Amino acid sequence: MSSDQLIWSYRAQVIGIIFALFFLVFVLNLVRNKRLLEEYSVLWLLLSIGILLLASWKGLLLKITKICGASDTTSILFFFGMICFLLLLLHFSIKVTKLTNHARDIAQQLAIISKNRSINDSDSEGETEKNNDTESPQ
């Protein structure tokens, strides 16, 4: 490896570590300000710790690359990034499905309550008119 490649490799590693630390602090700040639920923060914290590990421990990334049979470490990073995002998309799709079903159930319950209330209101109005008719002298 030439000295330019070593400097670039070192710079890329430092940039990766800085990015991972920034992302970790960002996620922690979102949780602290209650803008991100703890349920989701675990996913993002694990992702940022994984990025930090891979950025700071280059030997680990090289071992994973060799085990997978890839020719370059960037292709492994891209592959695992795609896997992470696919898993996140699947997780959020499941959550959206549950919320959609819950919203539909609530809307149906509200419709039933409204229907029952309008029936009860019309029955009570009919009784009031009936009572007024019987009480009024003619």
Secondary structure topology:
Blueprint: H1 3-32, H2 38-56, H3 58-68, H4 73-135
Helix pairs in contact: 1-2, 3-4
Explained architecture:
This protein is an all-alpha fold. The protein has a domain of 94 residues. The chain is 89% helix and 0% strand. The chain has 4 helices and no strands. α3 crosses α4. The longest helix is centred in the last third of the chain and has 63 residues. The N and C termini lie far apart (112 Å). It holds the Pfam family DUF2304. InterPro entries: DUF2304. This is DUF2304 domain-containing protein. Keywords: Membrane, Transmembrane, Transmembrane helix.
Q: Concise description?
A:
This protein has 138 residues and is mostly helical.
- Helix/strand-derived category reads mainly alpha
Helical content, roughly?
A: over 70%
How many individual helices? 4
User: Rg to the nearest angstrom?
Assistant: 31 Å
User: Can you give the mean pLDDT?
Assistant: 84
Shape: elongated
Main sheet summary: none
Quantity of strands, as a count: 0
Order of helices and strands: HHHH
Distance between the amino and carboxyl termini = 112 Å
Beta-strand percent range: under 5%
Uncertain runs: none
